[in-house]
Amino acid sequence: MKKIGIPLLSSTLLTLLPVVLTSLWVAYALEYEAILRHWPWYYWLIWTLVTSLTSALAITPPTYLAVILGYFLGYIGLVPAFLINLIAIYLVYLAVLYLPVRTYLGFLVDNPKAAQLLPRLQKNQLRVVFFAKLSPILPFTLTNLVLAMAGTRLSAMWLGGALGMIPRTLLAVWTGLQAKALHEAISGGKSSEWERILFFILLAISVVGLIQLFGKKAESSLEEEK
Closest Cα to residue 130, out of 114, 149, 143? Predict the structure, then answer.
């Protein structure tokens, strides 16, 4: 039970905690909107650095932060939005290298099924990172942890992560520009039809891409066993 409970609890926290805490942050930002709109640029720089750390710690998902940046900064918010992604990826990568992360989260990659997929990941690091980051449902920090612990190069995580995050970061910043869309998201209202369509398109591309990459490995493994 202990072996099952710890992984389940860790995965749940890494998935749900960012959503809950970021929702509180967004509510706070709206309550003090007048003050935030008069922030000087260096306040936003400090905010970017702080939220890069919180994103690496699975407290604030970068996509949610991009909505806030779009709401307050417009398309200029794309710059800090991508900086948050890249800095957070680097921090997670450093944590895996120098902190006892594997002691507590090694179950993410230390299992027979994961071991079969790791060689495929090593050969297609950039493509795997790209499709993983393209998915709108894979948790940011959890995905980075798995990729880093699996031995993915930092350059592949940065480039693949940046390219994969482009569609949803653009969408998030654009959504932030639309005050009505932001308020609907916070109040639980329905999103527009095209937003739902784009969500499922990104999800489908991500899933198909990952299946193609890892499916070939599974087939080759079966042939070798025969």
Answer: 143
Rounded to whole angstroms, how far apart are CA atoms 121 and 124?
5
67 vs 73: CA distance, rounded Å? 10
Question: pLDDT by residue (tens digit) across 87-105?
Answer: 999 999 999 888 877 676 6
151: tokens are: 């031995």
Q: How far apart are CA 162 and CA 85, in angstroms?
A: 7
Distant-in-sequence, close-in-space partners of 85: CB < 8 Å, separation ≥ 6: 55, 62, 161, 162, 165, 169
Q: Is 151 left (phi over 0), alpha (psi -120 to 50) or beta?
A: left
The reply to whether the predicted model has a pTM over 0.85 is no
Burial pattern 72-98, b for ≥16 Cβ within 10 A else e, equals: bbeeebbebbbbbbbbbbbbbbebbee
Q: Which residue has the higher pLDDT, 209 or 146?
A: 146
Are 145 and 61 spatial neighbours (Cβ–Cβ below 8 Å)? no
